What we know:
The protein is mostly helical and 71 residues long. The chain has helices spanning 2-26, 34-60, 62-70. 6% of the residues are buried.
Amino acid sequence: MKKSRKTVSILLLLSFIMLTVSGIIILPMPSDGTNSHTWLHLHVLFAIIFIVAGIYHIVHNWKTLKMYFKK
Length: 71
């Protein structure tokens, strides 16, 4: 269980960083180039990873999160 929490935390951090970087790179690019499509696909891939890891994190930490909201 601890190993999966570490993995999910690292996935969340790395995907957040890659979402930020790819979003900044995509912003000034023209939308008709092959390079922009590559960055867009990377952005979507890391968004999916971020969402899946985030859901996993919430599910496995639900009891702790509920305690935070009760305070």
